[in-house]
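[#protein-structures] MJ: dropping Low molecular weight phosphatase family protein here for a structure pass
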Amino acid sequence: MSASSLPLLPDQRLAAGVARLAARHAGRFSAETVQALLTDSYTLLAATAQVRTHLVVLAERFTAERLDALAHVQGGPGSGLPRVLFVCSHNAGRSQLAAALLAHRAAGRVSVSSAGTDPAAEVESFIEQVLAEAGADAAGAFSKPLTDEVVQAADIVITMGCGDACPVVPGRRYLDWPVADPDGAPLAAVRDIRDARITELLSSLPA
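AK: finished. C-alpha cells for Low molecular weight phosphatase family protein:
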C-alpha cells in the first residue's frame, strides 16, 4: 500500500500509536498495515463512544489485540498460546467478567479476548468491583466490536446470549454459556455470574 492510498488519521495523536505498534511488529506487519488497522479501530470505537477522552488510547489497545490475532492466524512468533474469545451482545458485562476472570486465573496459560456483536458505549459500572473482589484486574476494560481476525484467531469461542449474531467459524471449539445478563441484577447474582464455568474451562485447557 502506498503512502498516498493510506487513510488519513482521524486524530493525529494516533501517529505515535502507529509507530509503537509498527516497531513491535517489525518484520511481520508493515507500518501501512498498522496505520490502516488503527484507523479502522478508532472509527469502530468512535461509532459507539459517548465520551472520547480516552479514545486514542483505547484504539491503540484494540489495534494491538487485532494485530496479535492476525499474527496468531499467520503462525507468527509468540502465537502458540491457546486463544479464548468470549462473545456477548454488548461486551459490557458477561463477556468482560468472564474474560478478565479467566485471564487472571489462567496466569499466562491462555490468551483471552472479548467482544460484542452490538457493543455498548461503556462497560457496566459494577464490573470493576466484582473483579476486584476476585483479585482480577478490570483496569482498561472497554466494550469493543467483534472483528474477523479475532474470530479467526480463536481456538475456543464462548457465546453468551448473543443468539444468531454470534460468529460460526469451522474448526473452532464452540461453547454456549447460558449466563443471565447482569444488567440490573443484584450484586450477589453478579458474583455468581463471575464464577460460572471458569474452573471447568481451565481444567480443559492444555497444561
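MJ: nice. The mean pLDDT is 85.
AK: one more thing. The two ends are 41 Å apart (CA to CA).
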